[in-house]
Design brief:
Elements: E1 4-9, H1 20-28, E2 31-34, H2 40-47, E3 51-54, H3 66-78, E4 82-87, H4 97-106, E5 111-114, H5 119-126, E6 140-144, H6 157-163, E7 166-170, H7 176-185, E8 193-198, E9 206-211, H8 215-221, E10 228-232, E11 254-257, H9 261-273, E12 277-280, E13 284-288, H10 293-300, E14 307-310, H11 313-325, E15 337-340, H12 343-350, H13 365-373, E16 381-387, H14 394-400, E17 404-415, H15 425-430, E18 436-439, H16 442-452, E19 461-464, H17 467-475, E20 479-482, H18 488-500
Parallel strand pairs: 1-4, 1-5, 2-3, 2-4, 6-7, 11-12, 11-18, 14-15, 14-16, 16-17, 18-19, 19-20
Antiparallel strand pairs: 7-10, 8-9, 8-10, 13-17
Length: 501
Protein backbone atom coordinates (compact mmCIF):
# COMPACT_ATOMS: atom_id res chain seq x y z
CA UNK A 1 0.00 0.00 0.00
CA UNK A 2 1.28 3.47 -0.88
CA UNK A 3 1.62 5.86 2.02
CA UNK A 4 0.09 9.30 2.11
CA UNK A 5 0.16 12.45 4.23
CA UNK A 6 -2.85 14.52 5.28
CA UNK A 7 -1.89 18.02 6.38
CA UNK A 8 -4.74 18.85 8.74
CA UNK A 9 -5.77 21.72 10.98
CA UNK A 10 -6.93 20.82 14.50
CA UNK A 11 -8.59 24.16 15.19
CA UNK A 12 -7.83 26.42 18.16
CA UNK A 13 -8.30 23.86 20.97
CA UNK A 14 -12.01 23.24 21.48
CA UNK A 15 -12.59 19.71 20.21
CA UNK A 16 -15.99 20.77 18.87
CA UNK A 17 -14.22 22.99 16.34
CA UNK A 18 -12.42 20.06 14.75
CA UNK A 19 -13.81 19.66 11.23
CA UNK A 20 -15.66 16.53 10.15
CA UNK A 21 -13.02 15.79 7.52
CA UNK A 22 -10.18 16.17 10.05
CA UNK A 23 -12.01 13.75 12.33
CA UNK A 24 -12.37 11.32 9.42
CA UNK A 25 -8.67 11.29 8.54
CA UNK A 26 -7.64 11.04 12.20
CA UNK A 27 -9.82 7.97 12.68
CA UNK A 28 -8.12 6.27 9.71
CA UNK A 29 -4.56 7.35 10.51
CA UNK A 30 -1.67 5.01 11.30
CA UNK A 31 0.57 7.84 12.50
CA UNK A 32 -0.29 11.26 13.95
CA UNK A 33 2.49 13.85 13.94
CA UNK A 34 1.22 16.72 16.08
CA UNK A 35 2.21 20.12 17.45
CA UNK A 36 2.12 21.66 20.91
CA UNK A 37 -0.93 23.78 20.09
CA UNK A 38 -3.09 20.76 19.22
CA UNK A 39 -5.60 20.24 22.04
CA UNK A 40 -4.66 17.30 24.27
CA UNK A 41 -8.28 16.16 24.29
CA UNK A 42 -8.03 15.67 20.51
CA UNK A 43 -4.79 13.67 20.79
CA UNK A 44 -6.27 11.49 23.54
CA UNK A 45 -9.54 10.84 21.73
CA UNK A 46 -8.11 10.00 18.33
CA UNK A 47 -4.65 8.74 19.26
CA UNK A 48 -5.57 5.40 20.85
CA UNK A 49 -3.94 2.51 18.99
CA UNK A 50 -1.96 4.84 16.71
CA UNK A 51 1.68 5.86 16.59
CA UNK A 52 1.91 9.36 18.08
CA UNK A 53 4.86 11.63 17.33
CA UNK A 54 4.96 14.87 19.30
CA UNK A 55 6.99 17.46 17.42
CA UNK A 56 5.58 20.29 19.52
CA UNK A 57 7.13 23.72 19.44
CA UNK A 58 6.67 26.19 22.26
CA UNK A 59 7.67 29.83 22.29
CA UNK A 60 11.47 29.93 22.35
CA UNK A 61 11.78 26.15 22.53
CA UNK A 62 11.96 24.04 19.36
CA UNK A 63 13.06 20.51 20.39
CA UNK A 64 12.58 19.11 16.89
CA UNK A 65 13.77 21.31 14.00
CA UNK A 66 11.54 21.77 10.95
CA UNK A 67 13.95 19.79 8.77
CA UNK A 68 13.55 16.79 11.09
CA UNK A 69 9.76 17.09 10.96
CA UNK A 70 9.92 17.10 7.17
CA UNK A 71 12.07 13.97 7.26
CA UNK A 72 9.64 12.18 9.61
CA UNK A 73 6.70 12.85 7.30
CA UNK A 74 8.54 11.53 4.24
CA UNK A 75 9.91 8.44 6.00
CA UNK A 76 6.62 7.41 7.60
CA UNK A 77 4.72 7.82 4.32
CA UNK A 78 7.41 5.85 2.44
CA UNK A 79 6.72 2.96 4.84
CA UNK A 80 3.19 2.82 3.40
CA UNK A 81 1.51 4.47 6.38
CA UNK A 82 -1.40 6.90 6.51
CA UNK A 83 0.16 9.93 8.18
CA UNK A 84 -1.79 12.86 9.60
CA UNK A 85 0.31 15.96 10.16
CA UNK A 86 -1.87 17.72 12.71
CA UNK A 87 -1.37 21.41 13.42
CA UNK A 88 -3.17 23.84 15.69
CA UNK A 89 -5.54 26.19 13.88
CA UNK A 90 -5.12 26.05 10.12
CA UNK A 91 -1.95 24.54 8.61
CA UNK A 92 -1.49 27.33 6.05
CA UNK A 93 -1.76 30.28 8.44
CA UNK A 94 1.72 30.72 9.91
CA UNK A 95 1.86 26.95 10.28
CA UNK A 96 4.72 26.28 7.84
CA UNK A 97 2.43 23.89 6.03
CA UNK A 98 3.67 25.06 2.64
CA UNK A 99 7.25 24.15 3.56
CA UNK A 100 6.24 20.65 4.60
CA UNK A 101 4.25 20.06 1.42
CA UNK A 102 7.18 21.24 -0.70
CA UNK A 103 9.28 18.50 0.91
CA UNK A 104 6.58 15.90 0.14
CA UNK A 105 6.46 17.04 -3.47
CA UNK A 106 10.26 16.76 -3.66
CA UNK A 107 10.10 13.08 -2.68
CA UNK A 108 6.95 12.19 -4.58
CA UNK A 109 4.79 11.61 -1.48
CA UNK A 110 1.05 12.04 -2.15
CA UNK A 111 -0.83 14.37 0.17
CA UNK A 112 -4.08 16.17 0.89
CA UNK A 113 -4.79 19.36 2.81
CA UNK A 114 -7.57 19.55 5.41
CA UNK A 115 -8.12 23.20 6.38
CA UNK A 116 -8.80 23.98 10.03
CA UNK A 117 -10.78 26.57 11.98
CA UNK A 118 -8.26 29.35 12.38
CA UNK A 119 -7.54 31.16 15.65
CA UNK A 120 -7.62 34.79 14.37
CA UNK A 121 -11.36 34.32 13.78
CA UNK A 122 -12.40 31.73 16.38
CA UNK A 123 -10.51 32.93 19.46
CA UNK A 124 -11.86 36.51 19.26
CA UNK A 125 -15.32 35.00 18.63
CA UNK A 126 -15.08 33.06 21.91
CA UNK A 127 -14.02 36.31 23.56
CA UNK A 128 -17.07 38.20 22.30
CA UNK A 129 -15.11 40.10 19.64
CA UNK A 130 -16.37 40.03 16.03
CA UNK A 131 -13.28 40.78 13.94
CA UNK A 132 -15.43 42.66 11.41
CA UNK A 133 -18.51 44.74 12.14
CA UNK A 134 -20.44 47.14 9.92
CA UNK A 135 -20.13 49.96 12.45
CA UNK A 136 -16.50 49.41 13.43
CA UNK A 137 -14.35 47.48 10.95
CA UNK A 138 -14.63 46.46 7.30
CA UNK A 139 -11.20 44.80 7.04
CA UNK A 140 -9.07 42.31 8.94
CA UNK A 141 -5.29 42.11 9.01
CA UNK A 142 -3.57 39.05 10.48
CA UNK A 143 0.08 39.52 11.42
CA UNK A 144 2.64 37.25 13.01
CA UNK A 145 4.33 38.78 16.02
CA UNK A 146 7.03 36.11 15.89
CA UNK A 147 10.13 36.74 13.81
CA UNK A 148 11.96 34.09 11.84
CA UNK A 149 15.01 32.89 13.77
CA UNK A 150 18.01 35.16 13.18
CA UNK A 151 15.96 38.03 11.76
CA UNK A 152 14.20 41.10 13.04
CA UNK A 153 10.43 41.41 13.05
CA UNK A 154 9.40 42.90 9.75
CA UNK A 155 6.13 44.62 10.67
CA UNK A 156 5.10 47.73 8.76
CA UNK A 157 3.36 49.49 11.65
CA UNK A 158 2.68 52.59 9.59
CA UNK A 159 0.77 50.60 6.96
CA UNK A 160 -1.20 48.78 9.64
CA UNK A 161 -2.07 52.00 11.49
CA UNK A 162 -3.25 53.64 8.27
CA UNK A 163 -5.21 50.62 7.02
CA UNK A 164 -7.79 50.81 9.77
CA UNK A 165 -9.98 47.79 10.48
CA UNK A 166 -9.06 45.07 12.95
CA UNK A 167 -5.52 43.86 13.61
CA UNK A 168 -4.83 40.39 14.97
CA UNK A 169 -1.28 39.51 16.03
CA UNK A 170 -0.44 35.83 16.48
CA UNK A 171 2.47 34.59 18.60
CA UNK A 172 3.11 38.12 19.81
CA UNK A 173 2.80 37.94 23.60
CA UNK A 174 6.55 38.07 24.23
CA UNK A 175 6.73 41.14 21.98
CA UNK A 176 3.58 42.82 23.27
CA UNK A 177 5.36 45.99 24.41
CA UNK A 178 7.22 46.37 21.13
CA UNK A 179 4.03 45.88 19.10
CA UNK A 180 2.03 48.42 21.12
CA UNK A 181 4.82 50.98 20.92
CA UNK A 182 5.19 50.37 17.21
CA UNK A 183 1.51 51.13 16.62
CA UNK A 184 1.61 54.31 18.72
CA UNK A 185 4.76 55.57 16.99
CA UNK A 186 3.09 54.88 13.63
CA UNK A 187 0.30 57.31 14.55
CA UNK A 188 -2.41 55.07 16.02
CA UNK A 189 -4.23 56.94 18.75
CA UNK A 190 -3.24 55.87 22.28
CA UNK A 191 -6.83 55.10 23.36
CA UNK A 192 -7.45 52.59 20.55
CA UNK A 193 -9.23 49.57 22.14
CA UNK A 194 -7.19 46.38 22.35
CA UNK A 195 -7.51 42.92 23.84
CA UNK A 196 -5.28 40.03 24.77
CA UNK A 197 -6.81 36.54 24.61
CA UNK A 198 -5.04 33.58 26.24
CA UNK A 199 -5.80 29.93 25.39
CA UNK A 200 -8.98 30.86 23.60
CA UNK A 201 -11.79 28.26 23.20
CA UNK A 202 -10.42 26.15 26.09
CA UNK A 203 -10.91 25.97 29.85
CA UNK A 204 -7.80 28.12 30.22
CA UNK A 205 -9.34 31.01 28.30
CA UNK A 206 -8.47 34.38 29.81
CA UNK A 207 -9.35 37.80 28.39
CA UNK A 208 -7.86 41.22 29.08
CA UNK A 209 -9.35 44.34 27.49
CA UNK A 210 -7.65 47.73 27.53
CA UNK A 211 -6.15 50.20 25.03
CA UNK A 212 -2.87 50.06 23.18
CA UNK A 213 -1.45 52.36 25.89
CA UNK A 214 -2.53 50.23 28.85
CA UNK A 215 -2.59 46.66 27.50
CA UNK A 216 0.97 45.82 28.55
CA UNK A 217 0.30 46.77 32.18
CA UNK A 218 -3.02 44.94 32.23
CA UNK A 219 -1.40 41.81 30.74
CA UNK A 220 1.27 41.84 33.45
CA UNK A 221 -1.33 42.26 36.19
CA UNK A 222 -3.35 39.34 34.77
CA UNK A 223 -0.26 37.15 34.23
CA UNK A 224 -1.11 36.46 30.59
CA UNK A 225 1.12 33.81 29.04
CA UNK A 226 1.46 32.15 25.60
CA UNK A 227 -0.37 30.90 23.71
CA UNK A 228 -2.34 34.12 23.31
CA UNK A 229 -3.24 36.52 20.55
CA UNK A 230 -3.59 40.29 20.41
CA UNK A 231 -6.58 42.07 18.90
CA UNK A 232 -6.45 45.79 18.15
CA UNK A 233 -9.39 47.81 16.86
CA UNK A 234 -12.74 49.37 17.62
CA UNK A 235 -14.39 45.93 17.64
CA UNK A 236 -12.75 45.30 21.02
CA UNK A 237 -15.34 47.66 22.51
CA UNK A 238 -17.86 44.84 22.10
CA UNK A 239 -15.90 42.27 24.13
CA UNK A 240 -17.98 42.57 27.27
CA UNK A 241 -21.36 43.21 25.65
CA UNK A 242 -21.06 40.19 23.34
CA UNK A 243 -19.28 37.92 25.81
CA UNK A 244 -20.91 34.48 25.79
CA UNK A 245 -18.38 31.71 26.39
CA UNK A 246 -17.38 32.93 29.86
CA UNK A 247 -21.06 32.98 30.84
CA UNK A 248 -21.67 29.29 30.18
CA UNK A 249 -22.24 27.37 33.43
CA UNK A 250 -19.07 25.27 33.16
CA UNK A 251 -16.80 27.71 31.35
CA UNK A 252 -13.29 27.43 32.76
CA UNK A 253 -13.80 23.83 33.92
CA UNK A 254 -11.63 21.05 32.51
CA UNK A 255 -13.23 17.73 33.36
CA UNK A 256 -11.50 14.37 33.06
CA UNK A 257 -13.93 11.58 32.12
CA UNK A 258 -13.08 7.99 32.96
CA UNK A 259 -16.09 6.03 31.63
CA UNK A 260 -15.60 3.23 29.09
CA UNK A 261 -15.18 4.50 25.54
CA UNK A 262 -18.60 3.31 24.35
CA UNK A 263 -20.35 5.18 27.17
CA UNK A 264 -18.33 8.37 27.38
CA UNK A 265 -19.81 10.41 24.52
CA UNK A 266 -23.20 11.24 26.02
CA UNK A 267 -21.73 12.69 29.19
CA UNK A 268 -18.98 14.52 27.29
CA UNK A 269 -21.60 16.18 25.10
CA UNK A 270 -23.64 17.34 28.10
CA UNK A 271 -20.54 18.87 29.70
CA UNK A 272 -19.40 20.58 26.50
CA UNK A 273 -22.87 22.04 25.98
CA UNK A 274 -22.41 23.79 29.31
CA UNK A 275 -18.98 25.14 28.36
CA UNK A 276 -16.61 22.62 29.93
CA UNK A 277 -13.48 21.39 28.23
CA UNK A 278 -13.53 17.60 28.38
CA UNK A 279 -10.53 15.30 28.51
CA UNK A 280 -11.77 11.82 27.61
CA UNK A 281 -9.54 9.15 29.15
CA UNK A 282 -11.47 5.87 29.49
CA UNK A 283 -9.66 4.10 32.31
CA UNK A 284 -11.56 0.82 32.00
CA UNK A 285 -12.79 -1.35 29.16
CA UNK A 286 -15.88 -3.53 28.94
CA UNK A 287 -15.11 -7.07 27.80
CA UNK A 288 -18.08 -9.31 26.83
CA UNK A 289 -18.13 -12.71 28.50
CA UNK A 290 -16.92 -15.66 26.47
CA UNK A 291 -19.35 -18.41 25.56
CA UNK A 292 -19.90 -20.78 28.47
CA UNK A 293 -22.21 -23.52 29.61
CA UNK A 294 -24.05 -21.06 31.87
CA UNK A 295 -24.60 -18.55 29.05
CA UNK A 296 -25.83 -21.27 26.71
CA UNK A 297 -28.19 -22.68 29.32
CA UNK A 298 -29.66 -19.27 30.18
CA UNK A 299 -30.32 -18.30 26.59
CA UNK A 300 -31.72 -21.71 25.71
CA UNK A 301 -34.23 -21.20 28.56
CA UNK A 302 -34.77 -17.48 27.95
CA UNK A 303 -38.52 -17.97 27.46
CA UNK A 304 -38.92 -19.30 31.01
CA UNK A 305 -37.90 -16.14 32.88
CA UNK A 306 -40.56 -13.95 34.45
CA UNK A 307 -38.31 -10.93 34.96
CA UNK A 308 -35.13 -9.67 33.33
CA UNK A 309 -33.26 -7.11 35.44
CA UNK A 310 -30.59 -4.73 34.16
CA UNK A 311 -28.18 -2.77 36.35
CA UNK A 312 -26.19 -0.98 33.63
CA UNK A 313 -26.30 0.26 30.05
CA UNK A 314 -23.48 -2.12 29.17
CA UNK A 315 -25.51 -5.04 30.50
CA UNK A 316 -28.41 -4.12 28.21
CA UNK A 317 -26.23 -3.77 25.13
CA UNK A 318 -24.27 -6.96 25.64
CA UNK A 319 -27.38 -8.98 26.60
CA UNK A 320 -28.96 -8.20 23.24
CA UNK A 321 -25.68 -8.84 21.44
CA UNK A 322 -25.60 -12.28 23.09
CA UNK A 323 -29.20 -12.94 22.06
CA UNK A 324 -28.20 -12.31 18.45
CA UNK A 325 -25.13 -14.50 18.90
CA UNK A 326 -27.37 -17.35 20.08
CA UNK A 327 -29.88 -16.79 17.27
CA UNK A 328 -32.69 -15.44 19.48
CA UNK A 329 -34.81 -12.35 18.78
CA UNK A 330 -36.98 -10.22 21.06
CA UNK A 331 -40.10 -12.33 20.48
CA UNK A 332 -38.61 -14.83 22.92
CA UNK A 333 -39.01 -12.26 25.71
CA UNK A 334 -42.77 -11.84 25.34
CA UNK A 335 -43.69 -13.07 28.81
CA UNK A 336 -40.99 -11.31 30.81
CA UNK A 337 -41.22 -8.08 32.77
CA UNK A 338 -38.24 -5.71 32.75
CA UNK A 339 -36.64 -3.81 35.60
CA UNK A 340 -33.82 -1.25 35.32
CA UNK A 341 -31.64 0.52 37.86
CA UNK A 342 -31.99 4.08 36.49
CA UNK A 343 -32.56 6.50 33.63
CA UNK A 344 -29.46 5.62 31.58
CA UNK A 345 -30.26 1.91 31.67
CA UNK A 346 -33.92 2.67 30.91
CA UNK A 347 -32.97 4.60 27.77
CA UNK A 348 -30.60 1.83 26.69
CA UNK A 349 -33.44 -0.69 26.99
CA UNK A 350 -35.81 1.58 25.06
CA UNK A 351 -33.31 1.69 22.19
CA UNK A 352 -34.17 -2.00 21.67
CA UNK A 353 -37.90 -1.24 21.64
CA UNK A 354 -38.66 -2.33 25.20
CA UNK A 355 -40.05 -0.14 28.00
CA UNK A 356 -39.13 -0.87 31.60
CA UNK A 357 -41.85 -1.98 33.99
CA UNK A 358 -39.93 -1.15 37.16
CA UNK A 359 -37.40 1.57 37.98
CA UNK A 360 -36.63 2.68 41.55
CA UNK A 361 -36.70 6.31 42.67
CA UNK A 362 -33.17 5.93 44.01
CA UNK A 363 -30.78 4.49 41.44
CA UNK A 364 -28.88 1.81 43.34
CA UNK A 365 -28.93 -1.95 43.76
CA UNK A 366 -30.72 -2.01 47.11
CA UNK A 367 -33.51 0.26 45.89
CA UNK A 368 -33.87 -1.77 42.69
CA UNK A 369 -34.20 -4.97 44.72
CA UNK A 370 -36.84 -3.47 47.01
CA UNK A 371 -38.82 -2.00 44.10
CA UNK A 372 -38.90 -5.39 42.42
CA UNK A 373 -39.62 -7.34 45.61
CA UNK A 374 -43.00 -5.61 46.01
CA UNK A 375 -44.06 -6.90 42.57
CA UNK A 376 -44.95 -10.29 44.06
CA UNK A 377 -41.90 -12.13 42.77
CA UNK A 378 -42.45 -15.18 44.96
CA UNK A 379 -41.68 -18.34 42.95
CA UNK A 380 -40.79 -16.17 39.93
CA UNK A 381 -37.67 -16.73 37.84
CA UNK A 382 -35.45 -13.67 37.55
CA UNK A 383 -32.53 -13.31 35.14
CA UNK A 384 -29.87 -10.77 36.13
CA UNK A 385 -27.48 -10.13 33.19
CA UNK A 386 -24.75 -7.87 34.52
CA UNK A 387 -21.06 -7.43 35.26
CA UNK A 388 -18.92 -10.24 36.63
CA UNK A 389 -18.59 -8.38 39.93
CA UNK A 390 -22.04 -6.94 40.52
CA UNK A 391 -23.71 -5.36 43.54
CA UNK A 392 -23.77 -8.01 46.27
CA UNK A 393 -26.86 -6.61 48.02
CA UNK A 394 -29.34 -7.05 45.16
CA UNK A 395 -29.64 -10.85 44.92
CA UNK A 396 -30.31 -11.54 48.65
CA UNK A 397 -33.20 -9.03 48.65
CA UNK A 398 -34.86 -10.82 45.73
CA UNK A 399 -34.24 -14.28 47.17
CA UNK A 400 -35.70 -13.22 50.52
CA UNK A 401 -38.83 -12.18 48.58
CA UNK A 402 -39.07 -15.77 47.31
CA UNK A 403 -37.68 -15.33 43.82
CA UNK A 404 -35.34 -17.72 42.02
CA UNK A 405 -32.47 -15.55 40.77
CA UNK A 406 -29.98 -16.42 38.04
CA UNK A 407 -27.03 -14.05 38.34
CA UNK A 408 -25.56 -14.10 34.82
CA UNK A 409 -22.17 -12.41 34.18
CA UNK A 410 -22.36 -11.15 30.59
CA UNK A 411 -19.34 -8.86 30.79
CA UNK A 412 -16.42 -7.84 32.94
CA UNK A 413 -14.56 -4.57 33.36
CA UNK A 414 -10.78 -4.47 33.08
CA UNK A 415 -8.34 -1.63 33.67
CA UNK A 416 -7.12 -0.11 30.45
CA UNK A 417 -3.53 -0.70 29.41
CA UNK A 418 -1.63 2.38 30.62
CA UNK A 419 0.62 2.32 27.54
CA UNK A 420 -2.42 3.05 25.37
CA UNK A 421 -3.14 6.36 27.15
CA UNK A 422 -1.22 9.07 25.24
CA UNK A 423 -1.06 11.59 28.10
CA UNK A 424 0.13 11.40 31.69
CA UNK A 425 -2.84 11.57 34.07
CA UNK A 426 -0.41 12.34 36.88
CA UNK A 427 1.01 15.35 35.02
CA UNK A 428 -2.48 16.60 34.15
CA UNK A 429 -3.57 16.49 37.79
CA UNK A 430 -0.37 17.83 39.34
CA UNK A 431 -0.20 20.73 36.87
CA UNK A 432 -3.60 21.88 38.10
CA UNK A 433 -5.06 21.73 34.59
CA UNK A 434 -7.84 19.32 35.62
CA UNK A 435 -10.71 20.89 37.57
CA UNK A 436 -12.21 17.54 38.52
CA UNK A 437 -12.37 13.89 37.53
CA UNK A 438 -15.79 12.29 37.03
CA UNK A 439 -16.36 8.70 38.13
CA UNK A 440 -19.43 6.62 37.28
CA UNK A 441 -18.45 3.40 39.06
CA UNK A 442 -15.91 1.99 41.48
CA UNK A 443 -14.16 0.28 38.58
CA UNK A 444 -13.53 3.64 36.87
CA UNK A 445 -11.85 4.83 40.08
CA UNK A 446 -9.64 1.74 40.19
CA UNK A 447 -8.74 2.15 36.52
CA UNK A 448 -7.92 5.82 37.08
CA UNK A 449 -5.63 5.01 40.01
CA UNK A 450 -3.80 2.37 38.01
CA UNK A 451 -3.38 4.68 35.02
CA UNK A 452 -2.17 7.59 37.17
CA UNK A 453 0.51 5.60 38.97
CA UNK A 454 2.25 6.89 42.08
CA UNK A 455 0.84 10.30 42.98
CA UNK A 456 -0.88 12.29 45.72
CA UNK A 457 -4.55 11.50 45.09
CA UNK A 458 -5.67 14.09 47.64
CA UNK A 459 -5.17 16.58 44.79
CA UNK A 460 -8.02 14.95 42.86
CA UNK A 461 -11.49 16.47 43.12
CA UNK A 462 -13.70 13.48 42.43
CA UNK A 463 -17.26 13.90 41.15
CA UNK A 464 -18.87 10.56 41.99
CA UNK A 465 -22.15 9.15 40.74
CA UNK A 466 -23.07 7.29 43.93
CA UNK A 467 -22.15 6.32 47.45
CA UNK A 468 -20.26 3.16 46.52
CA UNK A 469 -18.16 4.97 43.92
CA UNK A 470 -17.37 7.75 46.41
CA UNK A 471 -16.31 5.24 49.06
CA UNK A 472 -13.81 3.74 46.63
CA UNK A 473 -12.44 7.20 45.75
CA UNK A 474 -12.15 8.12 49.44
CA UNK A 475 -9.98 5.06 50.07
CA UNK A 476 -7.33 6.72 47.89
CA UNK A 477 -7.67 10.05 49.67
CA UNK A 478 -9.56 11.91 46.95
CA UNK A 479 -11.70 14.95 47.76
CA UNK A 480 -15.12 13.46 47.03
CA UNK A 481 -18.42 14.97 45.95
CA UNK A 482 -21.50 12.78 45.39
CA UNK A 483 -24.39 13.37 42.98
CA UNK A 484 -27.95 13.42 44.30
CA UNK A 485 -28.91 10.56 42.01
CA UNK A 486 -26.96 7.82 40.26
CA UNK A 487 -27.64 9.44 36.88
CA UNK A 488 -25.51 11.33 34.37
CA UNK A 489 -27.68 14.47 34.46
CA UNK A 490 -27.34 14.53 38.23
CA UNK A 491 -23.57 14.11 37.96
CA UNK A 492 -23.39 17.05 35.54
CA UNK A 493 -25.39 19.19 37.98
CA UNK A 494 -22.96 18.17 40.72
CA UNK A 495 -20.02 19.43 38.63
CA UNK A 496 -21.86 22.75 38.17
CA UNK A 497 -22.18 23.05 41.96
CA UNK A 498 -18.51 22.19 42.37
CA UNK A 499 -17.59 25.13 40.13
CA UNK A 500 -19.73 27.54 42.14
CA UNK A 501 -18.09 26.40 45.35
Amino acid sequence: MDGKVWLAGAGPGDEGLLTIKAEHVLERADVIVYDHLVGENIVVKYGAGKELINVGKKAGHHPIPQEEINRILVEEAKKGKRVVRLKGGDPFLFGRGGEELAELVKYGVPFEVVPGVTSPLSVPAYGGIPVTHRDYASSLHVVTGHARRGSEKDINYKALAEAGGTLVFLMGVTSLGIIMEGLKEAGMRPDMPAALLQEGTTAGQKKVTATISTLVKRAEESDIRPPALIVVGEVCRLAEELSWYERLPLSGMRVLLTRPKELISSMAEKLRDKGAEVLEIPTIEIVPAQSSHLLSECFENIRTYDWIVFTSQAGVRIFFEKMKEYGIDVRALYRAGFAVIGEGTKKALESFGIFADVMPDVYDGVSLGRALAVQDVKNKKILLPRAEKGNQELVPILEEAGASVQDLPVYRTVCRDVSEIPVSIKDEIESGRVSCAAFTSSSTVEGFVKAAGEMDFSRVKAACIGRQTAETAKRYGMECYVSDKAAIDSLVRLIERMKKN
